[in-house]
Amino acid sequence: MLATFIIGLREGLEAALIVGIIAAFLRRQNRTDALRWMWIGVGVAITICVAVAVGLEILSRDLPQRQQEMLETVIGVVAVAMVTYMIVWMRRHARDLKGDLESAAAEAMDDGSAIAFAVMAFLAVLREGLETSVFLVAAFNSSQNALPSATGAVLGIAVSVALGYGIYRGGVRINLSRFFTVTGALLALVAAGLVMTALRTAHEAGWLDVGQQQVVDLTWLVRPGTVQASLITGVLGIPTKPVLIEVLGWAIYLVVVGTVVLWPASRPFPRRAVGLVTATLAGLSAIAALVTFLTAPVAPDGAGTRTLDAAITTAPQTSGILTGLTAHAPEHVAVTLDSTTVDSTDAATGNAGDTATGSLTTDGVTTALPAMTGGATTPVGTIAAPTYHQVVVPDLPIEQIVPGAPQRVTLPQIAAANGGRLPVGLDPRKFGDTAPVIYAVSADVTVSVDPDFATPLATEVTYAVTATVTPAAGAAAVLGKVATFTAIHQATAADLASVEDARDQQQAHDSRAVTIPVTLVVIAAVLAAAAAILLWPRRRPDTPADPGTPVPKPETAVTERPFEKKENTR
């Protein structure tokens, strides 16, 4: 609430001052026609600004989650840029604002156009209003409760209008220079919080992945409903668990803009000294980036093994025409994962578009798994592991699995195995005395994979033997599954520990080889650019381009102020 109140007060008072100065000038000149046009321009500008604010809010709500984060990032960046420009501009022009506006108004009056006053008021209110709209929308997006934020904005605008009217009527006097300095410092704090919010939404939108290491945990300090929570998160926009890139963005923005706002206007800015210090810091940042990169730990090759040995969990079951026979489960079952491919277009739907390749080994018989498809994630310990699935047909002879399996069957055997009924589609008139049986072994393979290193963590392989009778005449008939058994590998503590160790090693590598060096290089580039601007030689206006050219002496002239009444000399 306090943050939006400051925004509404500061921006509203700027617009109110500009409109009030123009209105006071027109009132002194008895230009009621131009005053009417001025209020029309104010009304049109306010309408446009309100429409823009409402449109941005509706647009951000109707978009999907990722697109919402993208739009909020863009709005946040624009809001920070606009408020920074406004702070710097008002810092430079606060003292001369009245004179500049009255000079522009006098020129418009000389032209005799009342429309010019409407345009002046329209542009002034439109600029401040658009800044307010974008800034408030960004503040609403970063706020957890829109009602207090909206209340603060309305109160701030109301107070600004009241102060502007009081200044216009002459009943209220404000030290504008001090007012804009104080509110500029407060706005710099608010804008620094918006920088953190924009960096966070940029990461959630998938635009920014560096610098995501948590720096500090403020949950002990920021408790919901407390005063410090309202101040830290509500006003300053600081999250409870800020990450590295957010803290750096906040600190850099606050130092630069805070220096511009708080530097005394009466004291010359030490450009050269600050430039040398900035250049030194840029060099140190570049050196630190190089040292950090060269001393980074090596990235891990992987985590754990690519092959999982599965064990039979229950005794094989036989049914149908194999009832009473003993099935022998394989002694060695293993699943090997070769590669995984992520389909980014389906990432939001539970990895439904992912694929993987591998192989299944059953007692020395290797069966390729060329197109395992991804499904929903499965919790494996503390890891949310995507699962991959494929059904294959291993080349396993029936004699190896069920010794003594009948190769030919009679109708009474089929009926007895099927509960006294013949399968649908089997014609007893064309069956004959016996018919051969074909056995097919299928394996339903499911693998749960660590998403970071594509390491298989758990697997389940369900084998099924299906029998099909093929009489010499008539159609064949499926007799159903006649034997099943399952092999499982559950992730062990050692499996999970190897993944966690690899993750720690990868995080250390990414931090020292990528995140920190890139961040330091960006800081060095920003500091170098700032140092170049500060150290760039500026030619004084009174210094001629050619040293040999004499500087003409300014002629003494008596200028007449356009608003001073001439004394009657008659």
From TrEMBL:
Biased composition (Basic and acidic residues): 561-570
Topology versus the membrane: Multi-pass membrane protein
One example GO MF annotation: ferrous iron transmembrane transporter activity
Keyword Signal: no
Annotated region (Disordered), positions in chain: 539-570
Keywords: Membrane, Transmembrane, Transmembrane helix
Domain of life: Bacteria
Gene Ontology CC annotations of this record: high-affinity iron permease complex
TM region(s), chain numbering: 6-26, 38-58, 70-88, 146-167, 179-199, 247-266, 273-296, 514-536
Locations listed in the record: Membrane
Similarity field: Belongs to the oxidase-dependent Fe transporter (OFeT) (TC 9.A.10.1) family.
Protein name: Iron transporter
Annotated organism of origin: Gordonia desulfuricans
